[in-house]
From TrEMBL:
Domain of life of the source: Bacteria
InterPro entries referenced in this protein's UniProt entry, alphabetically: DUF1329 (IPR010752)
Region (Disordered): 28-47
Pfam families assigned to the protein according to its UniProt record, in alphabetical order: DUF1329
Lineage of producing organism: Bacteria, Pseudomonadati, Pseudomonadota, Betaproteobacteria, Burkholderiales
Organism: Rugamonas brunnea
UniProt protein name: DUF1329 domain-containing protein
Region forming the signal peptide: 1-25
Keywords, comma-separated and alphabetical: Signal
Length: 460
């Protein structure tokens, strides 16, 4: 174990001990008083660098969809406090994860611009109320990884007692009923010695049946985390390929269907999950790396390591600037430092270790979950030799439509190969992503995501 990682684990263990261990008293009255509505610590840090959480509007007046989000953010005039790079990272090691330290050391030009901490992530009142109800009612399945019951939309386990509960909170965070990309890009940086980028243009929709406003039992909305559809617009090698999938909360066998335009047919893809490489990205991008983590939790044993104060990507509105030029943001080795904003926040540290008898190309993973929103803000994957392999950054953005924060855009750095993936950004798209709070049209209905409909819309 490296000295940096050993130091990190010692600090995390100390934080866990001070918090009384991962199991906290299940007292719903703490939510909204000593704890935030979703279970974070209401109080700021002792040194004042992390302020107390308070509920406030996320945007100034005048924003509507189609206007740049960053222009209406309340704290758009914040100035950088300091910059961390390979030369001075030792001064800040206690606030950096092993993955961040590796990025700073190994990635030429990678640096972190640190800003004042803005705890701007809230939730609507109905989500807060459902979360309180879940303290007494939410249950995991007997298998230890599936979600059996919960009141939705709401955080199932605001006071988690184990890692699977914490990861389920991430999966069930309130995101409205849908997300709509009219245009977006998935990018993979060139191989060493090459200048050839992979740039795939896409259209994509997510439908979250548990996101319907009000108070509903999970059994009423169906045990589906989300439905999704996407189709590639470019390059020519991918254009016309399309996918429709149902991701379940209690069944590892997702319904995934793929349309191949050259064959003019839809195929069911039962093995297109977990660590299967995504089509067209030269083995740089696995299925379950999408949006930091996607799919079921069943292949890993999940353990809460503790809580820690970490510099994490937060309020990163620059990567959702749909009017920006792609290569003003997307650099050869990393995203432009001016578009990545880091703040000091408390995170849950959750470690996943592959189960005995199961397999995965990353036998160990570490996730860092924001205490205020349950978004995965950082992740690290280790290879079969135990070496750090991939580092992911989830770019938290305040969502004005829902009153919450979300992670869609993310970057993933492959340390040994010196390449990175950048996905779900709107940079260069010419149109913003849209979060939906009300069901509308066929794409917020389960029937849209069937194999029959995929064939019908792909053949048009």
């Amino acid at each position: 174990m490296t000295n940096a990682k050993h130091q990190f684990m010692l600090v995390a263990a100390a934080c866990l001990a001070m918090a009384g261990g991962p199991a906290r008293a299940s007292d719903a009255s703490q939510l909204g008083t000593t704890l935030t509505p979703l279970g974070g610590e209401m109080a700021g840090s002792k040194d004042g660098r992390i302020p107390a959480w308070k509920e406030e509007a996320q945007a100034s007046d005048g924003w509507s969809w189609g206007k740049l989000r960053k222009d209406y953010w309340k704290y758009k005039n914040d100035k950088s406090l300091y910059t961390i790079n390979a030369a001075n990272m030792g001064q800040y090691a206690a606030m950096l994860t092993p993955g961040q330290q590796a990025l700073l050391k190994q990635n030429p030009g990678f640096q972190m611009e640190v800003y004042p901490t803005r705890r701007s992530c809230g939730v609507p009142e109905f989500v807060a109320e459902n979360t309180k109800k879940n303290v007494a009612t939410a249950k995991m399945g007997a298998d230890g990884w599936s979600l059996k019951s919960a009141v939705v939309p709401g955080t199932p386990f605001p006071m988690p007692s184990n890692g699977a509960q914490a990861m389920m909170n991430m999966k069930m965070r309130y995101r409205g009923v849908g997300v709509e990309y009219q245009n977006g890009f998935t990018m993979v940086s060139p191989r060493r010695g090459s200048e050839d980028w992979i740039m795939a243009g896409f259209e994509q929709n997510y439908y979250f049946p548990a996101g319907k406003k009000g108070s509903n039992n999970l059994t009423e909305t169906g045990n589906v985390e989300y439905y999704t559809y996407f189709t590639y617009k470019s390059p020519a090698a991918l254009a016309g390929q399309a996918l429709a999938a149902d991701i379940f909360l209690d069944n590892p066998n997702s319904e995934t269907f793929y349309y191949f335009p050259g064959q003019r047919r839809v195929r069911r893809m039962p093995a297109y999950a977990y660590d299967a490489p995504q089509i067209g990205f030269e083995n740089q991008y696995l299925l379950d790396e999408t949006n930091m983590f996607t799919g079921t939790l069943d292949r890993f044993d999940w353990k809460i390591i503790g809580k820690k104060e970490v510099l994490v990507p937060y309020n990163v509105l620059g990567v959702y600037d749909f009017k920006a030029k792609i290569h003003d943001v997307v650099g050869r080795n990393a995203l432009a430092a001016s578009t990545r904003r880091y703040e000091l926040h408390r995170v849950w540290v959750v470690e996943g270790t592959v189960k005995q008898g199961a397999r995965h190309v990353s036998p160990k993973r570490t996730y860092y979950l924001d205490e205020d929103s349950w978004n995965a803000v950082l992740a690290e994957d280790y290879d079969v030799q135990g070496a750090l392999w991939k580092v992911r950054e989830g770019y938290v953005v305040p969502v004005y439509e829902t009153g919450t924060c979300d992670v869609l855009a993310f970057g993933q750095y492959n340390l040994p190969e010196g390449r990175y993936v950048f996905d779900f950004s709107t940079v260069g798209a010419g149109v913003d992503v849209k979060w939906l709070t009300e069901s509308r049209g066929e794409r917020t209905k389960a029937a849209f995501y069937t194999s029959e409909n995929l064939r019908a819309i792909s053949d048009r």
